[in-house]
Write a structure and sequence with these properties.
Helix content is 36%, strand content 13%. It has 410 residues and is α/β, with parallel strands linked by helices. The strands form four sheets. The chain has an eight-stranded parallel beta sheet. The protein has a three-stranded antiparallel beta sheet with strand order 1-14-15, with no helix packed on it. α1 runs antiparallel to α14, α11 crosses α12 and α13 packs across α14. The longest helix has 33 residues. The radius of gyration is 21 Å and the shape is globular.
């Protein structure tokens, strides 16, 4: 049995971790990581949705041996949670995604890597060892860019591609606009060049190259341009790949793009869709033979006023009816909330911002602390609720609280 890790007496909760991270991040980074779209109401509701539910604990059930593991990508995950893909982690800590990968490796927790990472997918694979990992993918209009990334992920042993499907356009993030967010030196978007010294690797968020890029040395900037439609013809994005110009893809559709993606990824990698929020789209995902769904609203950073992911979860689960796994992200800040998501039908949860807070707090050790806090809280919740296996966590363990404070069984 593994020895109990000592407590960090300065940080005993995810809420405390957030406060520590705020003190260590500069304003641009803090605003970029923590902001939601527009007024931020969906961002807030992602967390508040969990307070609508209370746990119904059962007793006298012999919980002396609790198994928190669950099936994932053909193996067993020690916990029903993974680290969600989040961009540009070197903003939080110089070790960035590599530190997160090492923490996930040591905890046995799956890691999701953003396409717009500040560490290459190969370096993250090396830091991960044999630990499972997935690649979040924006499918670009010029597919050759995405095809190369998929081939590299295959060669590096990634288990799945998570296609982000909720960014046909980018949500309005006002602090990002006000701060004129730029990726500071010496960091770069690492995955979109075979030569890390090329201009494309140094592209910042808006498509203008950093001061050290080749185009600047030659006396002019190389600028990326977004795609546009003149009413007759669609012109795809041009220039070096940047988030604002290339990540949003308004041309994505089920019939053409999912089939193409399956052809590129299979059989080495599974194909998941990340950003499903309705039963109708869940049914389409099953119809188009994706391997799994992540119920997500992009951390409240896209459509403000959309449903909280926990509120969207039940109809997605009902539509899928067990045909494919259903995962969820957004708003989870405590192990009891992992329990509630599973009870409402999720097979697995993904943790985003708390991992970034851990990374900012203390690098790899901070991420390990984040995972340990959530894992310990979840195991404690399982035991106190009277469950010993993840498969036992069902809606029978929840009641819903209405605005008047009355509770009702699900």
């Amino acid at each position: 049995m593994a020895a109990q890790q000592p407590h960090d007496l300065n940080c005993l909760t995810i809420a405390e971790l957030e406060k520590h991270a705020e003190q260590r991040m500069d304003k641009q980074t803090r605003d970029y990581y923590n902001e939601g779209a527009d007024s931020g109401s969906t961002l807030l509701e992602n967390s508040q949705a969990y307070s609508k539910y209370r746990i119904r604990p059962r007793v006298l059930r012999d919980i002396s041996l609790i198994d928190t593991s669950c099936p994932l990508f053909g193996t067993r995950s020690p916990l029903p949670m993974g680290v969600a893909p989040t961009a540009m982690q070197c903003l939080a800590h110089p070790d960035g995604e590599a530190a997160t990968a090492r923490a996930c490796r040591d905890a046995g927790v799956v890691m999701g890597l953003s396409s717009f990472a500040t560490t290459t997918l190969e370096d993250v694979a090396a830091a991960s060892g044999n630990n499972p990992r997935v690649l979040q993918l924006y499918l670009f209009e010029e597919r050759e860019h995405s095809k190369k990334l998929i081939q590299r992920a295959k060669a590096s042993g990634y288990k799945a591609v998570f296609l982000t499907v909720d960014t046909p356009m980018l949500g309005r993030r006002n602090l990002e606009i006000r701060n004129q967010f730029k990726l500071p030196k010496p960091y770069k978007i690492a995955n979109f060049t075979e030569d890390s010294d090329s201009a494309a690797a140094k592209t910042v968020m808006d498509g203008a190259l950093s001061d050290t890029a080749g185009g600047e040395r030659e006396g002019k900037k190389s600028i990326s341009a977004p795609g546009h439609h003149d009413g007759k013809t669609r012109t795809p994005p041009a220039g070096p790949i940047s988030f604002h110009t290339h990540a949003p893809n308004p041309t994505l559709c089920w019939e053409r793009d999912i089939d193409w993606l399956r052809q590129q990824c299979k059989p080495e990698m599974e194909v998941w869709v990340k950003g499903i929020a309705t039963g109708e789209d869940a049914l389409l995902a099953v119809h188009h033979r994706v391997d799994g769904i992540v119920v997500s609203n992009h951390g409240g950073r896209q459509l403000n006023g959309a449903m909280a992911t926990l509120d969207a979860l039940p109809e997605v689960v009902d539509a899928v009816r067990g045909a494919i796994p259903v995962h969820i992200d957004g708003g989870i800040r405590h192990g009891t909330e992992i329990f509630k998501a599973l009870a409402l039908g999720a097979d697995f949860v993904w943790i985003g911002r708390p991992v970034l807070w851990g990374l900012a707090y203390n690098g790899q050790e901070g991420v390990e602390l984040c995972l340990r806090l959530l894992g310990d809280e979840f195991k404690l919740c399982m035991g106190l609720a009277g469950t010993v296996k993840v498969s036992e966590v069902t809606k029978d363990y929840l009641v819903k609280v209405d605005k008047s404070g009355f509770v009702s069984r699900l």
